[in-house]
Amino acid sequence: MSLFGPSKTQMVTQEQALPGVGVEMPTLERHRVLGTPLKPPFPVGYEVAVFAMGCFWGAERLFWRRTAGVYSTSVGYCGGFTPNPSYEEVCSARTGHAEAVMVVFDPEAVAYTDLLRLFWESHNPTQGMRQGNDVGTQYRSALYVTSDQHERLALDSRDRYQLALGRTGLITTEIARLGPFYWAEDYHQQYLAINPGGYCGLSGTGIRCE
């Protein structure tokens, strides 16, 4: 604990979290690259997956470039307590939220297991409350699932990837049901499409997820 509350690598409790506001953060209506809606309703039969793997700028680009079957992507905050947080509040580590990417996909064109493989191989899931040089609870590795089937597949893929990692490290990835997803400010959406030379902290372990 610091003099001003929990450290950036220690999860806040609901009692410690910032109160938030009752108004949604304004954001884009349509994807800058794909041209599709960022928010529901989505086409019938499409599914939603939410991934947290460090800074959400590079993570979102990773998934929108997986164009076959990916309908839309967007960035936001979830897994914590504070309603409708701002980016600055999330950066304070006093909301409990992780930076996350919502991926809307057609399961007839791309399997959830393929997206899971991309997730595991594109970051280091053994680092706890950080990802590379990005330190804090907002950068933790997490899978937020939307169905029983997704939960089973996520847990199975985690166990298989742990076997592949061996002694490289223990996976710290949080796997939980998706609660409220708060869309991030418009300038964060598809950030690397408008700032192609911008920061991307993604770095995998180099170990494949079979």
Structure report:
Residues about 1-5 have low confidence and may be disordered. A 6-stranded mixed β-sheet has the order 7-6-1-3-2-8, covered by helices on one side. The chain is globular, with a radius of gyration of 16 Å. The protein has one domain (about 45-195): Peptide methionine sulphoxide reductase MsrA (Peptide Methionine Sulfoxide Reductase, Chain A), CATH 3.30.1060. It is of the alpha+beta class and about 210 residues long. The chain contains 5 helices and 8 strands. The chain has helices at about 55-65, 85-90, 110-120, 150-165, 190-195, and strands spanning about 45-55, 70-80, 100-105, 130, 135, 140-145, 175, 180-185.
Q: What's the SSE blueprint?
A:
Layout: E1 47-53, H1 56-64, E2 70-78, H2 87-91, E3 98-105, H3 112-121, E4 130-131, E5 134-135, E6 141-145, H4 148-165, E7 174-177, E8 182-183, H5 191-194
Parallel strand pairs: 6-7
Antiparallel strand pairs: 1-3, 1-6, 2-3, 2-8, 4-5
Helix pairs in contact: 3-4
Short description:
The protein has 210 residues and is of the alpha+beta class. The protein has one domain (47-194): Peptide methionine sulphoxide reductase MsrA (Peptide Methionine Sulfoxide Reductase, Chain A). The chain is built from five helices and eight strands, in the order E-H-E-H-E-H-E-E-E-H-E-E-H.
